[in-house]
């Protein structure tokens, strides 16, 4: 049973704290387990404190996403073998991620949210960020992929030529 | 933060959504990506096939050419020459550099009587394939026997 009125105080890795409804935190496997482990009586204790290994700025983004998705059904549906679509991100989520584009380093923000979603065990957010990253890469050239992923080419010219030669089997 | 500091399970989920053509390009991005491509599951695709005789399938191939068409998901290899062992090894090397496993709804295989490439090629090509429907197009008793042998091999691999 979840008590929507119950409040949970989350303490971030950089010392900030934020109090949110249990209706939001129920989507986080990590926070739910922490509350369960405290063995508190939901009726008697209206406030629980949980330390999370996520910084304040990232946690704010996570809470924004959780607020929008507070009524999503739980448990989050398990992925089937057939699922490979990445183009079914809800409109609100797309706009949510687009907002990061105005930030100086949107890729770092995406990585921070992915890491937070993993630490807090928020399956819906992990799924959405997985599709977002996949969509950024899909159909791009090698140079564009390196730019998006912020990676340097660490192959020699000879090694690149060898891989291109192997790939040629599939690109004729 | 770099992409390879993200959780491994997350990176593998991303890789399951990549098309084969993207996997080919990702191999060229960096050494770490080359390894991730080879060591990750390609996810689910509708179909794949090995056509021994593209002319029979309506493809415009000059008759003196002995070529094979291989398709795995969206990765299509036209006019593949696999008569020599070195050619087969090169092709299998690419296949194993592209993914560690794949799920296909339907996979079609043509065999010819000369059995070039041989059964071992097909066994290695389809290693770690999960195929829902396996189709064979056979014109002779020899081809039927070889097809049944491949089906038996699939069953053996699945049961292991």
TrEMBL record, chain A:
Domain (SKP1 component POZ) ranges: 8-71
The keyword Signal belongs to this UniProt entry's keyword annotation: no
SKP1 component dimerisation domain sequence ranges: 123-170
Keywords linked to the UniProt accession: Ubl conjugation pathway
Alphabetized SMART domains for the sequence: Skp1 (SM00512)
UniProt entry tagged with the keyword Transmembrane: no
Domain of life according to the entry: Eukaryota
GO biological process, one term: ubiquitin-dependent protein catabolic process
SUPFAM superfamilies assigned to the protein according to its UniProt record, in alphabetical order: POZ domain (SSF54695), Skp1 dimerisation domain-like (SSF81382)
Family classification: Belongs to the SKP1 family.
The protein's name: Skp1-related protein
Lineage, highest ranks first: Eukaryota, Metazoa, Ecdysozoa, Nematoda, Chromadorea
TrEMBL record, chain B:
Domain F-box: 1-48
PROSITE patterns cross-referenced by the UniProt entry: FBOX (PS50181)
Protein name according to UniProt: F-box domain-containing protein
